[in-house]
Amino acid sequence: MTAKTVSDYFGCLVFDDRVMKAKLPSKVYASLKKTIDEGASLNNEVANAVADAMKDWAVEHGATHFTHWFQPLTGITAEKHDSFITPSPDGGVIMEFSGKELIKGEPDASSFPSGGLRATFEARGYTAWDPTSFAFIKDKTLCIPTAFCSYAGDALDQKTPLLRSMQALNKQALRILRLFGNTEVKCVRTSVGPEQEYFLVDKEMFEKRKDLLFCGRTLFGSKAPKGQEMDDHYFGVIKPRVAAFMADLNEELWKLGVLAKTEHNEVAPAQHELAPIYTTTNIATDHNQITMEVMQKVASKHGLVCLLHEKPFDGVNGSGKHNNWSMATDTGVNLLTPGDTPYENAQFLLLLCAVIKAVDDYQDLLRISVATAGNDHRLGANEAPPAVVSVFLGDELTAVLDAIENDTPYNGAEKTVMRLGVHTLPKFIRDTTDRNRTSPFAFTGNKFEFRMLGSANSIATTNIMLNGAVAEALKVYADRLEAADDFETALHDMIKKTIKDHKRIIFNGNGYDDAWIKEATEGRGLLNLRTTPDAYPALLEKKNTDMLISHRIFSMAEIKARYETGLENYAKTVNIEGLTMVDMAVKEIIPAVEAYVKDLSESLAVKMAAVPTASCKYETGLIEKLSSLVDSASDAAAKLTEALEKYQTIGDVTDAACFIRDDILEKMAELRSYCDKAETLTAKKYWPFPTYSDLMFGVK
Ligand code: ADP
Ligand code: MG
Question: CB–CB of 313/321 below 8 Å?
C-alpha cells in the first residue's frame, strides 16, 4: 500500500466545494453557489437538501453530533453540541438534520460577554449560518460556521461585523473600479494571511506553575543565563519533539482545509511560527481560530503545551500575529499590485492612498483592535512594533509620492514630471521594497502587513477596523470623483491632497528607535496609546462612531458593548494575574525561601559550634538578604491584596481598568521584583516550580 499523500487527504474533513458538487443535486448546488458567491438568500427547500447532504457526508465520516460554531466576544470560539439522533417508532434511532437546524441555532448563550447588550435574564441570542465559510468535522462533530446575534439583531460576535465590514469595503471599492471603467468585476474581497507565533513548553513543567495554568504566562521568573542573544534559535534546526508536533499539526490542519504553509523557529528559545497561505478574510479568520485550537490539542498529544500568550516570558521576545492584507477582485486581480498601464497605475496609487489615509485617520481604531492586557506587554517592548501606528512604504514608493506631491520629476526610469493616467510607473516595487521589520504597518510589494496584533488576538477586530477605515477613504474618493467634471484632474488633485494631508503617517526608518517615538508624537502629532485603557476611550469618539455606523458595521449599542467588554476583559485578566501572584508568593515562594533560610541557619549553627573562629560571612549574609526579601515580598503581597480588594469595589468599567493600569500593575511588578531576586539566591532544589531555564530549554 502506498502512503497517502497530502493531496489525497487535504480538506477531507471539510464540506467544501468538491463535496458539494458531488453530493448535491445540480439545481441545489447552483442555488447554494449563488448564495455563497453573491449573497443571494437561500430558500427552505435548498436548505433542507443541503442539510441532508451535509449530514449524510458527516455521518459517513464518523460524526454523531453537529454544532453551530461561533466566535463570541471572549476571543475564542464556542459551540453547543446536538446529536443527529431522532427516535424511530421501532425503538431505534435515525440520523436527522434539517435545513432549519442548519440555518439557525439558539444556543443558551446568556453568559457570553455582551457588554450589556443582552442582560442575562433576557431572551437568548441566536446563531445564523455563514455559508461562505465551509462546514467541517472536528471531534466527531459537524461544525457549522455561524454568526451570533441577540434577538434584537445586535451582533454579539466577531463574524457579524467582519462580514459587514467586508460588504462595506466591497461597495465602495466597486464604485472606484467603475470610475476607472471596470464593468466586469462583481465583487471585491479582502484577503488575509495571518502569521501566527507561539511558544511550546513541556506539559509536566507547565502543570507545576499556577501562573501558566491560570494566566498562560509566567508572573515570576528570573532571566535564564541564556536568552535569545546568540540568535541561534531563529530559523535554527527544529528539535525532534517540536518537529513531530509540527508534522502532526500540519496533517490535522490540512484535513481541515487550512492552508498551513510555512513553519520555523522564531527568535526566542522555544518560540515558533506558522503561516498559512492567504485566503478570503472571513475564512482566514475562521481558519486562524481553528489553527489556535488545533495547536493546543496537538501539543497536548505530544506532552507539550502551546502558549499563545503575547508575553509568556519576561526578557525574551513576545508572540505576535502578522495580518497580511490585500484587496482582490472576483476576477482574480490583486488591487494592491501596481499595474502595467498608466490607468492601472493611477488606480493602484489611488487605492494605496486610500489605505494611507485610512491608517492615518483611524490610527486609534487600529490600536484598539489589538488592545488586550496580554498585548500591552508586547507593544513598545524592544522587539515589538511600538504602540505608535505608522506606515512603511519603502524609499522608492515614497519617492514616487513625493514627486506627485511636489510636481517634481521622479528620478526613476523616466525622468519626467509624473502625470497620473498619463505616465507608466516604473516597475519598482516588488523587488526593491526593503523588508522593514520594525514598522507596524508595512507595504510589502502587493499587500500590507499589520504587525501589532497579539498572538492570542482574534484577527477579526483588526480586519473589521481596517476594512471600515479603507471603505470610508474610498467613499470620500468615490463621492468626489463621481461628481467631478474632469476625472483625471480630480484624481490627480485628490492623490496629491492625500499625500499632503497624510504623509505624517509614512515612516520608513527604525520604528524601535526612541527618537522616532519622540518625533512621531511631538513632531508629527501621531497617537501613542500605550495601554488598553489609554486606547479604548477613542472608540467612542464621534469620528469613529460616525464611520462605523455609517458603513453599517456597528450600531451605537454594539460599539458601546465592545467598549465595555474590551475594558472588562482587560481588568478581569489582570485581576486574575494579581490573585495568582499573591497565591504563588504566599503559598509557594515565601515558604520555599523560608525553608532554605532555615536550613542555612541550621548549618550556620553547626558550623559555628564546630569552628568558633569561622567568619560564616556567606551564611549570615545570605540569611540576611533572603530574610529581608521575604519581608519585602510579604509586604508587597499584602499591599497587592488590598489593592485587588479595592478594585472589586469599583463599579465603573473605565475607572476599574484605569485603577488596574495605575495601581495594580505597579504593585504586581514590585512583588515580582522581590521574588525574582530571591530566586537568584535560593538553592535550586528549594525552588517550588520550574524556572525560566527549565521551561525555555526543556523541550528537546
Ligand atoms: P514573509 O512575510 O515571510 O516574506 P510572505 O510575504 O510570502 O512571507 O507571506 C506572508 C503571509 O502573507 C503568508 O500568509 C502569505 O500567504 C500572505 N500573503 C501573500 N500574498 C498575500 C496577499 N496578496 N494578500 C494577503 N496575504 C498575502
Ligand atoms: Mg511577515
Answer: no
